[in-house]
Structures are given as C-alpha cells and as structure tokens.
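Supplementary Methods, section 5.1.

A reviewer requested that the exact input to the structure prediction be made available. We therefore reproduce it here, unchanged from the version used in the analyses.
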Amino acid sequence: MKRWKIHIPPVPKVHFMGELKSVLFGGVTTSDAAEHCACPEEADFILLDFRHLLHDYYRITRPEKTIMVDYRDQQTHVFPAPLCLYFKRSVVRHRRDGLEDYKRRVIPIGYCVKEPYRQAASQAPVKRDICVAICSGFCNSSIMRWAYPCALLGWVT
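The structure derived from this sequence is encoded token-by-token as follows.
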C-alpha cells in the first residue's frame, strides 16, 4: 500500500490544539497509510485546519493538492480560498430545512460520540432532543481520485 506524504503547515504553539493536534496531526503521524512530510512541494496532499487561514499562517500556493478540514461550528461560513477538497463538520441549518447551501462543494464530516458520553446521556434525569445528521455515500467521479486517498487515511468512510 502506498504511504501518502501529508504536509500540515506549522502554526504557533498557542494554536497547535484541538482537532488540528488530535485529529489531523495525530491521525497522520499514527496512520500506516500516511507519513508527515515537512516540505509542501514533496507532499501528496496539504492538510489545513481553519486556524491556518483564519490567522493567516498559511498562503495557499498549491490548491490542487490542498484540503481544508473545517471543524468550526459556524455552519454558514466556509473559506473562499481555492482548494481541491473542503470537509466541514457543521453543515446542518438548525431550526430550518436541512443542510447549508454553499457556493462550493463541501463534504460533511461528523462528530464522534464516545461510548461513556452515550451511556451517561441514556441515564440523564432530563430527556432532551438531539439533532443527528447522517451524511454519506457521495460518489462524484471528478473527486474520487481525491476521496480515495482520504478514505485510506480514515477521513472519508
């Protein structure tokens, strides 16, 4: 199996946290299908977290191999920068009629619910409604060559 070279641009230590640290960097460095690559020119893909663009830590020079993984809860905002793929966590329009309508292709990703939280919620004294959206099965031939490597890395199922 090919090991994909993944570049994650550095950010100041104060912003190396959250999903950037645990999901992106942690996923790449522990995956059998990927290796972290220090040089963006040698990388197969460049992974960005919202912090890279929000704080101007990275200027996109290779959009054809740059992937945004946006874990922010601002469902109405996506970055307008040119990218080959854009994954976003919060895409559901709460109290309205479904998914947000973006001017670009956005692939929904989901939250992970850990088993201890699920068990605790089932024993809560007050029951409440929880919004759950399941988005899967995208199959667009123009993006399959990008989706396949991401699937190997565990980002698309």
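Residues 130-157 have pLDDT under 50 and may be disordered. These observations are discussed further in the main text.
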